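Sat 14:20. Reprocessing the chain from the morning session after the first attempt stalled halfway. Input below, unchanged.
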Amino acid sequence: MRFLILFIFLVFCSINLFALGLKSSVFENGGYIPDRYTCDGKNYSPPLSWDNLPKDTKSIALVVDDLNAPLGIWVHWLIYNLPIDKEGIEENISNEKIDSLGAQQGKNDFGQISYGGPCPPSGPAHKYSFRLYALDKNITTENEIDKSEFMKLIQGHIIAQTKLSGFYQRRQNKKGEKDEKN
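Finished this time. Tokens:
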């Protein structure tokens, strides 16, 4: 019986030790996203890093969503065909740099082909999901796509996925009122 318990424990630990990982150097999982990466700051994309890609991974994709948007899930960023030799993306990565990597971006719900930082309305903090996908193929598209089209294209091609969550709440201005961007 002890042997069985030890075996199950070791299997569980090895699965977690080698699971796909995603993190940021500027906020912890479940922590607050700094203003710098939002519409209240510079609207920079945050630095992200990943590890433990499965061996059959051919490309990497990232989707950033606001899970608490008033009209439903709001897409802030869609980037796909990231090369597997990259271990992350730097802060404020430019569209030109993304293109030079051979990666592509889809249309976010701001109607842009780029990162759009957290910009919730007044009220409680919103939860943002940074979901990383390890895919068994590159995604081929002839036109700009949005998240719904992207999700259809990756069905059956997801080898592994993980997520990093962060929160953001609009700061108050000097008069004690909530800012009202977007």
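The helical segments are 2-17, 95-100, 147-154.
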